[in-house]
Design a protein that fits this description.
Largest sheet of chain A: none
Strand content of chain A: under 5%
CATH class of the largest domain in chain B: Mainly Alpha
Number of helices of chain B: 15
Distance between the termini of chain A: 56 Å
Helix content of chain B: over 70%
CATH topology of chain A: MetI-like fold
CATH architecture of chain A: Orthogonal Bundle
CATH architecture of the largest domain in chain B: Orthogonal Bundle
Number of strands of chain A: 0
Radius of gyration of chain A: 29 Å
Structural class of chain B: mainly alpha
Oligomer: heterodimer
Strand content of chain B: under 5%
Largest interface: A-B, 118 and 105 residues
Order of helices and strands of chain A: HHHHHHHHHHHHHHHH
CATH topology of the largest domain in chain B: MetI-like fold
Order of helices and strands of chain B: HHHHHHHHHHHHHHH
Shape of chain A: globular
Number of domains of chain B: 2
Number of domains of chain A: 1
Helix content of chain A: 55-70%
Shape of chain B: globular
Distance between the termini of chain B: 28 Å
Chain lengths: 326, 291
């Protein structure tokens, strides 16, 4: 530190003469400060990829559904022929009812058990974060690989479930899990529930943790029973998160492909085909691209319904948080 | 649902230990056992020699009596498994890099540059997340064929961003929202250009978000199945999930030991990644739902 400063004298002489030194920005730098240009630059990669590989294929799929395209040859417009033949196709209608049953049963199971698990995890328990981490594992590992494990668990001869039930003396024969239509459907639903519980539980747990304990205290002072507290405090407060998670879950269960393809491949005798697996079977190995696309497009009305549900769920959440609707 | 007695209002309520054991610990332990059992079964089956694998009378199937690495050895040396692992890793890494870069730019534009119509673009990207791969794979297959990408890794690297970008963009918008706008205004007054602000201020502060987006995108690409099944034909170019299912299952004679080894080794990389970044996974999962 210089003497001048220490003695309280301003070091005027030492100051650099003031010069106008701001460099002229290069044209390129000025271009990047142009907001319109910057917005376009930033959005181009994401929007470009999405338009080329998502929006365009969506339109192309719609077109293919009205053509008789096959692998290796582009089809010609055939109007509603594909839908007409699907309308009289018993396997197609079976796949529709299968998909609806699969979605409904798996969603009820996932949300019932997932909510229960979330409520359990919301307690003061030791090793909470470790348990939470363990619970998420089924959701992290590749679905197909855990599905293969289920395939082995459902083996007609060496199923560990049959073994355990026999050891406990409940049954005295091996259950043929994948051999009969209803056994196979329920086995797939069970595997899907297993796969879906972690996502539901952890998301709902996050929702539960945002509920202020003072609400429960107030309810308890008012003499609310535990059921009343659940019904009139927990559920309404959880509704916004629940509706979003439910939408995603329904959407991805409805369009599920991996579990069924890995465990039964639609068998026995096409009894467990979902719309997605039937579309794949007809479209790619079967080569009937037009028909496959028509089956895939038939899923869209259901997806739109689920999306609208999500949209209104989100809007309601903003309102509940006291934020303005954007 | 009768579990309502276990509310977080517990401090006011009374929860004796025996009661808690019945209503909390027992169901929780059952949940954990059921959720983890398939992985235990996978591991056990991998380590079993063939004579134990199919003999439940003399050996308790829930335990390995003479563990062997024969299945693992067979998997690693008699199949293309190492090749599949490398392919999967390469595809997942490339798709992740492309998606995260595009998503950062898009999220920055949508959340920070705030142009007219940015809400609509944001909504469109959100809707893109709701379009499932199972309705896109047929038209995409014809596109991939026409572009000459069929049976190349590029078919996957270019199509995975369709489900990664919407997810990452929404995740990052959430992170950018949490960074005070004042910091950027200060920099703007100090004469920083918009790109400098993004590079020097916003991005360093959004690093946790970038890590979340990156590991999530990597996991989702690793786990992807239907595109990899439809667009890749030759064995050595397949990704692990597809290859285990299509290459290790031959005819009706399932080699359960090798199959389970394949499933186990395909799960371990993501499980490892997960164990290092658990908090990021949990926060991005719950954050994505809450956004």
């Amino acid at each position: 530190m210089s003497n001048a400063v220490r003695e309280g004298v301003l070091p005027i002489a030492e100051a650099h003469p003031w010069r106008f030194t701001t460099r002229e920005p290069t044209p390129l730098a000025r271009l990047f400060d142009n907001k319109t240009f910057l917005v376009v630059m930033c959005l181009t990669p994401a929007v470009g990829l999405l338009v080329v590989f998502l929006t365009y294929p969506l339109g192309l799929g719609l077109w293919l559904a009205f053509t008789d395209a096959k692998i290796g040859r582009s089809g010609v417009f055939v109007g509603l022929d594909n839908f007409d033949s699907l309308f009289h196709d018993r396997i197609f209608w079976l796949s529709v009812t299968n998909t609806l049953f699969y979605t409904a049963a798996a969603t009820v199971g996932k949300f019932g058990l997932g909510l229960w698990l979330a409520l359990l995890l919301n307690h003061n328990i030791p090793f909470k974060s470790l348990i939470r981490a363990i619970v998420l594992i089924p959701w992290i590992v590749p679905t197909v690989l855990s599905a293969i494990a289920f395939w082995w668990i459902y083996d007609p001869q060496f199923s560990i479930i049959s073994y355990l039930l026999k050891a406990m003396g409940i049954i005295d024969y091996n259950i043929d899990f994948l051999g009969t239509p209803w056994h196979a459907r329920l086995a797939l639903v069970a595997a899907n529930i297993w796969r879906g519980i972690p996502f539901v539980a952890i998301s709902l747990l996050a929702g539960l943790q945002t509920i202020s304990p003072s609400l429960y205290e107030a309810a308890m002072l008012d003499g609310a029973s535990s059921w009343a507290r659940f019904r009139y405090v927990t559920l309404p407060m959880l509704m916004p998160v629940l509706s979003v998670v439910l939408t995603f879950s329904v959407l991805f269960t409805f369009t599920d492909f991996q579990l069924v393809y890995a465990i039964t491949r639609g068998g026995p005798a096409n009894a467990t085909h979902l719309m997605a697996t039937l579309a794949f079977q007809r479209g790619i190995p079967g080569g009937q691209l037009g028909e496959g696309a028509a089956i895939a497009m038939a899923m869209i009305p259901f997806l739109v319904a689920a999306t609208l549900f999500s949209y209104f769920g989100l809007a309601r959440r903003r309102w509940q948080q006291g934020e303005a609707d954007e | 649902m009768s579990k309502s007695s276990d509310q977080p209002g517990a401090p006011l309520g009374w929860e004796s230990l025996p009661r808690k054991i019945v209503t909390v610990y027992t169901p929780l332990i059952l949940f954990i056992i059921v959720l983890l059992f398939p992985f235990y079964w996978m591991t056990i089956t991998t380590l079993k020699p063939n004579n134990e694998l199919y003999n439940y009378k003399d050996f308790n199937p829930l335990w390995v009596h003479s563990p062997t690495l024969a299945n693992v050895k067979k998997l690693l040396f008699d199949t293309d498994y190492p090749q599949w692992l490398m392919t999967t890793m390469g595809v997942a890494a490339a798709a992740t890099i492309i998606s995260v870069i595009s998503s950062v730019l898009a999220a920055y534009a949508l959340q920070r540059l705030r142009f007219r119509g940015s809400n609509w673009v944001g909504l469109a990207i959100y809707l893109a997340y709701l379009v499932p791969p199972s309705i896109l794979f047929i038209p995409l297959a014809t596109m991939v064929f026409q572009l000459g990408l069929f049976d190349t890794p590029w078919a996957l690297i270019l199509t995975y961003p369709t489900f990664l970008i919407p997810f990452c963009t929404w995740l990052l918008i959430g992170y950018f929202k949490s960074i005070p706008y004042e910091l950027e205004e200060c920099a703007l007054i100090d004469g920083a250009s918009r790109l400098q602000i993004l590079r020097r201020i916003t991005l360093p502060l959004a690093v946790p978000g970038l890590i979340s987006a990156g590991i999530f995108a990597f996991t989702l690409s690793w786990n992807e199945f239907i595109y990899a099944l439809a667009f890749i034909q030759s064995s050595e170019k397949k990704t692990v999930p597809v290859a285990v299912l299509t290459q290790l299952v031959q005819g009706d004679d399932y080699q359960w030991g090798a199959l389970m080894a394949g499933a186990l080794f395909g799960s371990i990389p993501v499980a490892l990644l997960y164990s290092f970044f658990v908090e990021y996974y949990v926060s991005s999962l719950t954050g994505a739902v809450k956004e």
